Amino acid sequence: MSRVWDWESGEGLLRLDDPGEWDSAFERGEAHLGTAVIGLANHCSPAEASPRIARAMRLPDAAQWGFAFTAAGHVARLNGELTPELYAALRAEGHGGAAEHAIRDTLTFVPFRKLPPWFKRRWVYVAARDRLEAWWLRCVYAAEDAWRAARGRRS
Fold first, then answer.
1. Which candidate, 13, 33, 92, 153, has a CA 20 to 30 Å from the CA of 42?
2. How far apart, in Å, are the Cα atoms of 15 and each of 57, 69, 125, 151?
3. Phi and psi dihedrals of 4, rounded to 5?
4. Would you say 103 and 122 are in contact if contact means Cβ atoms under 8 Å apart?
5. Which residues contact 59 (CB under 8 A, 6 or more apart)?
């Protein structure tokens, strides 16, 4: 049975599981393609969803291409891998901005040995920065606790 998708409101598109339907909607210039690509990321293999996610990353509507980066993060979470096409798209966008969460998801859920060299360097940088930040916060909290304790004795 063929489903009829509500491209006007976007309702139900998170359940989209037919890459051909997404391609047809793209050709027709439908709205909510970014929302639908999240559905593809959830229900299709990375090989099927990845070309559509990469195309959605180039949509003119910023909100919709933002959803495409969310879809790339979902692919990393659900499958523990990305396709070379998605790695290239995330690298092209770079860290910061719309790709930041997708890159973080990739670094978290894809094993280090499966990452391309650029992502391995990014993983090392992020891991070092996170450890330094944790160390800094422990020092700040210790200083605040010492200050509170010293003030409490004087009162």
1. 92
2. 19, 18, 36, 58
3. -105, 120
4. yes
5. 33, 34, 65, 68
Span 61-77, pLDDT tens digits: 888 888 999 999 999 99
> What is the 3-state secondary structure of the chain?
CCCCCCCCCCCCHHHCCCHHHHHHHHHHCCCCHHHHHHHHHHHCCHHHHHHHHHHHCCCCCHHHHHHHHHHHHHHHHHHCCCCHHHHHHHHHHCCCHHHHHHHHHHHHHCCHHHCCHHHHHHHHHHHHHHHHHHHHHHHHHHHHHHHHHHHHHHC
Query: Which residue in 87, 80, 121, 84 sits closest to 103, CA to CA?
Result: 87
> What pLDDT digit, counting tens, does each position of 8-34 carry?
887 888 888 889 989 988 998 888 888
**pTM of the full predicted structure?**
0.80
Name the phi and psi angles at 53, rounded to 5.
-65, -45
Place of tokens 């070309």: 51
